[in-house]
Amino acid sequence: MEAVVQEQAVEAVARRRPARVSLEAFTFMSPTMLLVTLFFFVPVLLLLWISLTNLSSNTFGNPLCVGGAREVCEALGIRAGGVEFVGLSNYRRLFADRFFPKILRNTLFYVFSTLALFNVGLALVLALLTTHIERRVGFLFRAIWLLPRITPSVIYIMMWKRIAADAPFGILNQFLMPVGVEPRFWLKEAPWLFVIVTNGFVGASFGMLIFSSAIESIPRDYIMAAKVDGATTLQIIRTIIIPLIKWPLLFVTTYQTLSLLASFEYILLLTNGGPGLYRTEVWSLTAYHRALQTYFGNNQWGYGAAWGFVLVVIGIIFSVIYLRVFRFNELVQEPKIDAL
Amino acid sequence: MWRSRPLWLFVGLLTLLWFVSACAQQQQEPQVVERTVVVRETVPVEQTVVVERTVEVPAGGELVTLVARCKAGSVEQGRCNNLISAVGAANAWLEEQGDDRRIQVKTIQDNKDWGEYKTEFELAFQAGEAPDIIVSGHEHIGDWAPAGMIVDITDMLGQHPEFEDVIDSLWESTTWNGRIWGVPQDAEARPMFFSKPLLRELGWSDEEIESLRDRIFACEFSWEDMMEVATQAVQQGVVEEGNGWWHRPKNGPDFLYYYYAAGGVIQDEQSGDKLVMEKDALLKVYQILYDASQERKILSPNLLGTEWPDWHTAVSSAENVLFWFGGSWNWPEWAANYVADRGGEDYLWENVGFSAIPCLKSGTGKPITLTHPLVYMISTQSEYPDLALLLIAKATTKELNTTYAVESGHLGILKSQADYPPYKAAKFLSEVLPLLEYTTFLPNSPYWSQWSEAYFLGIQSVESGDLTPEEAVEVVIDQLQNELGDNVVIR
User: Fold this and answer.
1) Among 3.90.1150.10, 1.10.3720.10, 3.20.20.60, 1.10.3210.10, what is the CATH number of A88-339?
2) H-type helices in B270-317, by residue range?
């Protein structure tokens, strides 16, 4: 009988333990959860709400003061303006816009070209190069590559605009004219090239740092053993380094995809979505144009928010895809040695 | 060597701190001016002098600080400065009336883009921090009046006789829904400029060049003729390809007069509050631009997106571009900032001519230009709208406005300026004044911004060659219907 009671007590303790562990875990995570809630979930909910209203320059008021809340707002002295709940009409307008497919295509082209060529591709090449040369030289090279990142965006883009300016201006023209190349407005001739390069030079530095530190942290024994076995550098990279930096690769790819999806400031400053017909207009820039920048300033915050919210959904879809492709669950599993 | 590392770190840190503080001190924009002691007074008729005076508040009286927000380029500082100059007269008027309140004014003045400037006011308004007075484009009345952000001043205007002097037609630009929402601050014309040396190089005689201005007024030299001459200039190598004719390098009010010139109507009695888009006029505009950029090669397909300083540098020298559409305020700007080393305004008179925008075809229609008056508006958040209007009234005088007009290349807004000697003595203003006979305005409508964005989209696409004029019309109409729905009438 006593043994049965003892057994039941042990079972009860065992049942209670996960609860206590999860409570502790939640307590430790609560500051982060609070921050994520305040700075991600609440803004996303607000964005969604605004996208369901007609908030604009000429209806300007508190977007929460619609319908029955209007009277409460007026009683509290909060300006309601002419804001009204319009349901999904902003989304209908968005999907009926004949440039919506083009802007989506532009966005995907911009994100994946910059990501593949620079933010992951070039970053990996730079990390591999700078970790395979003399340590100090590698450090110096990485420090120099960080310069565009610490240069204010406006100055950085102004420099590029002067580089690619129209004839008779343009630094590129000054260099190319003596070798017989006809001066051109390079920024207009190849806008995507400049958009991707300007973003990529800055973006590559992030991955370069992460990959470099990941490569540096690979135990030297592995590399030495491989070399002793006669492996070439390419074989070492392919069979040792790349598999061991899978986690940073997932992180950089996911983070930079989301970052590129939401970034538009360089494009805004460089081409403002042009030339011509939305040639370099990307999704986040359209949201900005709709919500905050037209020449005569009729800001359509409700409509802009609809573009913004769709972008959030696109970002979530990409995140889920990446987590599945890179098998996120396996990456965060407890090492088998610890599990034993 | 390693022992000196802390020292180097310390020196480095100090240098960094010095650099950051130096940068912080450099940030002077927007410029906030708080001056109430400088009052401009006209002593003899032609001279404006600056007199220092302190604001005396009677015992038990109230010193009211009004905040004014202006957008102004380097030669347009008078927009807000005239309000500072009017403080003395406003306080004197209050004293005469036995009112114990006195005014001081704080001005915030910079040269942001219109969109940003307008957004700033709207966000400040929502935060309850809107300035008392804002100077902005008259078309913003179309957004701010229905949103309840600016004061309907129709019934207050009678309190100040200064407003009777404002040119009657300018009140049209400040009217929305039959009520007046602002006081005109300036007006301007948007002429077509031409390079005299390049026309001479093309074989034109001095007589032909000098008579061009009047031939345009008489509709004997048309837009089509201009394009033909520009084509000859490109073909003969007088100017480079793409430099026969330039318009502004960004979106803006100018493009609307193309549509007007093509016979388009944007608002009429039938349409009411709705805006109108007329397909025939739209097609004509796009055909002109497509023809100029893609076929004749007189207009660079890369012109849109050019930086303003590059544009000004290219046109003001009169050596690169044959014809260009600009604004009257460009003249003093070029004289002061672009050709000052060549002789300033004298250089411009010698090398640059101007007239109205020619009529579309010879002998039909009439020349055109567009006026975009800036207006003083009073925020509904102002606690003292009466004092704000008083200050505006005292700034609406021929003395102050003439000083501003002469400095900035803007036209006078008062009837009395026509005979005012300092105004008459300003050669450029006198020469520009006849253009007002052909002027047009932007509409005051809440839908104007979307209309204009869609219209400009078509301009961009035909100039870049992305669309033919017919395709552009289809795209723009589709875009307008999606954006404005029932609020646009397509004809």
Assistant:
1) 1.10.3720.10
2) 279-290, 308-316
Integer Cα distance of A73 and B126 in angstroms: 14
**Cβ(B409)–Cβ(B188) under 8 Å?**
yes
Tens digits of per-residue pLDDT, B156-213?
Answer: 999 999 999 998 888 988 999 899 999 999 988 999 999 999 999 999 999 999 999 9
Residue owning tokens 């869609």: B454
Degrees, nearest 5: CA angle B223-B491-B474: 75
Indicate the range of A113-117, A289-293, B63-67, B294-298 predicted with least confidence: A289-293
Examine the pLDDT at A340 and tell me if it is beyond 90.
no
| Site of tokens 């992460």 | A210
Mark residue A294 as left, alpha or beta (left: phi above 0; alpha: psi -120 to 50; beta: remaining): beta
| Residue B20 within a domain | no
Task: Name the pLDDT band for B45 (thresholds 50, 70, 90).
Answer: very low
Quick check: A89 contacting B, CB < 8 Å?
Answer: no
Question: Least CA distance to B146: which residue of chain A?
Answer: A58
Question: What is the span of the domain harbouring residue B125?
Answer: 31-188+372-437
Q: What is the mean pLDDT of chain A?
A: 87
Cross-chain Cβ contact A166/B304 below 8 Å? no
Give the start-to-end residue ranges of the domains of chain A.
Answer: 88-339
Structure-model confidence comparison of residues A150 and A19, the more confident one: A150
Average pLDDT for residues B442-458, to the nearest whole number? Answer: 90
Among all residues of chain B, which has the CA nearest to that of A62?
B126
* Bridging pattern class, strands B275-277 and B488-490: parallel
The model's pLDDT over B90-108, given as tens digits with 9 standing for 90+, comes to 999 999 999 999 999 999 9
Interface of A with B in 152-191 (CB under 8 A): 161, 165-166, 169, 185, 187-188
Rounded to whole angstroms, how far apart are CA atoms B173 and B137? 9
Work out how many CB contacts closer than 8 A connect A with B. 126
Q: Are B442 and B455 in contact (CB under 8 A)?
A: no
B451 & B308 share domain: yes
Whether residue B468 is contained in a domain is answered as yes
The rounded distance, in Å, linking the Cα atoms of B127 and B106 is 19
- CA B313 to chain A, closest CA, distance in angstroms equals 11
In the prediction, which pLDDT does B322 show? Answer: 97
Task: Tally the domains of chain B.
Answer: 2
Residue A193 to chain B, least CA–CA distance (Å): 17
Greatest alpha-carbon pair distance for chain A in Å reads 100
- Would you call A243 exposed, middle or buried from its count of C-beta atoms within 10 A (0-12, 13-18, 19+)? exposed
With 80 as the cut, is the pLDDT of residue B55 above it? no
Q: Do B381 and B359 reside in the same domain of the chain?
A: no
CATH number for the domain that contains residue B143: 3.40.190.10
- Is B385 a domain residue? yes
Are B72 and B205 in a shared domain?
Answer: no
B63 residue type, one letter: L
Q: Do B119 and A297 touch (CB under 8 A)?
A: yes
pLDDT value for B480: 93
Residue B372 Cα, gap to closest chain A Cα (Å): 12
CB B192 within 8 Å of CB B356:
yes
Tokens of B75: 């030669």
Q: What pLDDT, on the 0 to 100 scale, is given for residue B258?
A: 94
**Alpha-carbon gap: B420 to the closest alpha carbon of chain A (Å):** 34
Instruction: Give domain status of residue B5, yes or no.
Output: no
Query: Based on the domain organization, do B228 and B146 belong to the same domain?
Result: no
pLDDT at B29 over 50: no
